[in-house]
Amino acid sequence: MSTQNSQSWQKGQAAVFVLLLVVFLIWALADGRPFFRNTGHDIRTTVHDAGQDLKTTGRDAAASIRDTVQ
Fold first, then answer.
1. What's the rounded Cα separation, in Å, for the pair 23 and 17?
2. Alpha-carbon distance 53 to 49, whole Å?
3. Cα(49)–Cα(59) distance, integer angstroms
C-alpha cells in the first residue's frame, strides 16, 4: 500500500514540475513581457457593462412585479 502512495505522490510531483516547466517556457517565449497589458481598461469596461446589465435586469424585475401586483 505504501508503494501505491509513493507512486501517486511521485506522479503528482512530476505533474507539477511539468506544469511549471510549461509556464516558464511560455514566459520565455514571450520575452518576459507582461501577458495582460491592457487588462485594467478591459476590466473596467467589463464591470461597467455588467453594472448596466444588472440595472436593466433590476428594472425589468421591478416592472414585472409591478404588473403582477396590479
1. 10
2. 6
3. 15
| Beta-carbon-side half-sphere exposure of residue 31 (alpha carbons within 13 Å) | 0
pTM score, two decimals? 0.40
User: What per-residue string of b and e applies to 26-64 under the rule 16 or more CB within 10 Å gives b?
Assistant: eeeeeeeeeeeeeeeeeeeeeeeeeeeeeeeeeeeeeee
Q: Per-residue pLDDT for the chain (70 aa), expressed as one digit of tens each? A: 456 666 666 677 888 888 988 888 887 777 656 655 655 666 778 888 888 889 999 999 999 998 888 8
Instruction: Provide the residue count of the chain.
Output: 70
Nearest to 35, CA basis, from 47, 53, 23, 48 = 23
Q: Coil, strand, or helix at residue 30?
A: coil
